[in-house]
């Protein structure tokens, strides 16, 4: 089976969770599959399937100044559409799987003689339009669900909302939860500033819907009881604008902004933390919670539907606006007896073990086989 992956996500977010999803999916495909990946010419991927063939497309304009790029980028993208589509069409494929809701250089997903598969991750932009003020991502998603022959949802939560918003897509959807990448990751050294220290851990971006500010407020409250308790944040560097928007300070005593870290370091950060706190208002799945459970961390998570779906009874929950409840949970975890802590860690590991990339690849391959057979039957 020849599978063509259109790699827009590697242009948009080459280090994000969606990129990891496709790298893991491709790596775990059966050996009789032949994956092809079209990505920007300047990037490389970590997928290791023995039959993987990588194809490169020129997607960045050659303009130097920021003003020129802003002025002409739209026209450059459109001028590249035909060439990129020709490159993609040149891949002999039985099925196409798009990594996002449009293609490289933001070209729409076309109806095709080759069946199209898309994956829908979440509806965060629909609930938080401030992250998509022009509405282009919402438009791409609506159009993609129309032209797709099959839609994969990464959680039941996402599937339910997809069916409510786009009932016509309900009959062509599958739910395939994500897998557990951290089972195979080797731990690295803990950052020096956290050694022999008690700390809470936050991972990822800290924008509005990620709700970092509620953790900040709860931590500041708990610090009156535990002055030595640190708050570590792994993810993008903290900016001045972010400090102003979230009413936080990178110079706050006890706050440790780590910036981006390797997977090995992240696994150790999870394992050595007093708790991993995931206060997000909404998620499509919540990979960090899965990583934390696999690594042996106690998870304190908001009660949004996707996180409850992933963590089950292996996490403690709070309403995303209830900083008082979160402070109580932090106090609880600080006083947790060793035996109870070990029991909670084991519960999380068992929960994490039920998610595997092998199952993701197996179920996705079955989707490919079904859409190919259906497409052949209607051709």
Order of helices and strands: EHHEEHEEHHEHEEHEHEHEHEHEHHH
Indicate the radius of gyration in whole angstroms. Answer: 22 Å
CATH T-level topology of the largest domain: Rossmann fold
Number of helices: 14
Describe the structure.
The chain has 379 residues and is of the alpha/beta class. It folds into 2 domains: 2-179 and 357-378, 3-Layer(aba) Sandwich (Rossmann fold); 192-353, Rossmann fold. It has 14 helices and 13 strands. Strand 9, helix 8 and strand 10 (255-259) form a beta-alpha-beta unit. Helix 7 crosses helix 12, helix 9 (263-272) packs across helix 10 and helix 10 (287-295) crosses helix 13 (338-353). The longest helix is centred in the first third of the chain and has 24 residues, at 66-89. The two termini are 18 Å apart.
Task: Give the helices and strands, then pairings.
Layout: E1 2-6, H1 9-12, H2 17-27, E2 34-40, E3 53-57, H3 66-89, E4 95-98, E5 116-120, H4 124-127, H5 136-147, E6 150-153, H6 156-165, E7 173-175, E8 199-203, H7 212-222, E9 230-234, H8 240-246, E10 255-259, H9 263-272, E11 275-278, H10 287-295, E12 299-302, H11 305-311, E13 315-318, H12 323-334, H13 338-353, H14 357-378
Parallel strand pairs: 1-2, 1-4, 2-3, 4-5, 5-6, 6-7, 8-9, 8-11, 9-10, 11-12, 12-13
In short:
It contains 14 helices and 13 strands. The mean pLDDT is 91.
């Amino acid at each position: 089976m020849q599978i063509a992956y259109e790699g827009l996500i590697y242009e948009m977010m080459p280090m994000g969770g969606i990129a990891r999803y496709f790298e893991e999916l491709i790596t775990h495909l059966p050996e009789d599959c032949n994956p092809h990946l079209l990505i920007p010419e300047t990037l490389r991927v970590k997928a290791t399937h023995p039959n993987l063939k990588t194809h490169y497309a020129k997607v960045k304009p050659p303009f130097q100044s920021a003003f020129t790029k802003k002025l002409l980028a739209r026209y450059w993208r459109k001028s590249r559409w035909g060439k990129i589509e020709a490159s993609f069409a040149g891949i002999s494929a039985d099925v196409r799987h798009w990594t996002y809701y449009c293609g490289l250089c933001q070209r729409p997903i076309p109806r095709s003689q080759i069946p199209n598969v898309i994956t829908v991750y979440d509806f965060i932009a629909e609930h938080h339009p401030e992250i998509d003020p022009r509405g282009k991502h919402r438009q791409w998603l609506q159009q993609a669900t129309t032209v797709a022959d099959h839609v994969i949802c990464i959680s039941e939560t996402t599937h339910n909302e997809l069916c409510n918003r786009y009932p016509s897509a309900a009959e062509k959807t599958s739910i395939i939860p994500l897998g557990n990448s951290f089972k195979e990751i080797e731990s690295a050294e803990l950052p020096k500033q956290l050694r022999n220290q008690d700390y809470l851990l936050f991972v990822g971006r800290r924008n509005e819907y990620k709700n970092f500010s509620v953790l900040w407020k709860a931590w500041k409250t708990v610090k009156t009881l535990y002055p030595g308790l640190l708050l570590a944040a792994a993810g993008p560097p903290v900016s001045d604008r972010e400090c102003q928007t979230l009413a936080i300070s990178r110079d706050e005593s006890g706050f440790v902004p780590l910036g981006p870290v390797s997977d090995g370091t992240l696994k150790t950060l999870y394992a050595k933390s007093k708790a991993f706190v995931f206060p997000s208002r909404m998620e499509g799945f919540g990979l960090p919670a899965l990583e934390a459970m696999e690594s042996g961390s106690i998870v304190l998570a908001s009660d949004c539907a996707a996180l409850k779906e992933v963590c089950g009874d292996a996490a403690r929950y709070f309403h995303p606006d209830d900083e008082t409840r979160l402070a109580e949970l932090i106090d609880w975890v600080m006083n947790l007896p060793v035996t109870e802590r070990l029991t909670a860690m084991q519960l999380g590991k068992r929960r994490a073990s039920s998610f595997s990339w092998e199952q993701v690849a197996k179920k996705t391959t079955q989707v490919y086989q079904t859409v190919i057979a259906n497409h052949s039957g209607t051709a």
